[in-house]
């Protein structure tokens, strides 16, 4: 099975790939040219090219690669671009204490970052271990 998957990847016949990536505490199922919205503060600015390293799963039409818990960084690369940083719609917080004539209304807008997934690539062969052990990849 591993040999067949390596052969399909080497020939470039894997078709349109999808991936499950972990970003800012959430998981997103993405494919090429998808746009995802990340809520909350996130440091990258518009136009930044980002390689998403926490890839949990990659799949195509005929196969799926599942990480335990994540796939090796040298096996899969998911590249993205920050296309927009903006604020969300206005959200309302309403406080009321009954029978006390106490009412408060607050409004806020949270930060959002929009990412476009440029490409999903399988770089190496499956079941080949890299010579470098990766340690500091699991923290946000």
From TrEMBL:
InterPro entries: bL21-like, bL21-like_sf, Ribosomal_bL21. Signal peptide: none annotated. One of its GO terms (biological process) is translation. Pfam families: Ribosomal_L21p (PF00829). GO terms for molecular function: RNA binding; structural constituent of ribosome. Keywords: Ribonucleoprotein, Ribosomal protein. GO terms for cellular component: mitochondrial large ribosomal subunit. Belongs to the bacterial ribosomal protein bL21 family. This is Large ribosomal subunit protein bL21m. It comes from Rhodnius prolixus (Triatomid bug).
């Amino acid at each position: 099975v591993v040999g067949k998957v390596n052969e399909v990847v080497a020939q470039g016949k894997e078709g349109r790939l999808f991936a499950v990536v972990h970003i800012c505490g959430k998981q997103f199922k993405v494919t090429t040219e998808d746009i995802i919205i990340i809520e909350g503060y996130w440091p990258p600015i518009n136009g930044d090219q980002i390689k998403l390293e926490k890839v949990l799963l990659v799949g195509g039409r005929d196969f799926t690669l599942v990480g335990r818990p994540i796939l090796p960084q040298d096996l899969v690369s998911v590249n993205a671009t920050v296309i927009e940083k903006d604020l969300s719609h206005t959200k309302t917080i309403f406080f009321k204490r009954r029978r006390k004539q106490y009412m408060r209304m607050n409004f806020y807008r949270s930060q959002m970052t929009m990412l476009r997934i440029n490409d999903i690539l399988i770089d190496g062969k499956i079941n080949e271990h890299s010579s470098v052990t990766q340690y500091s990849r699991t923290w946000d």
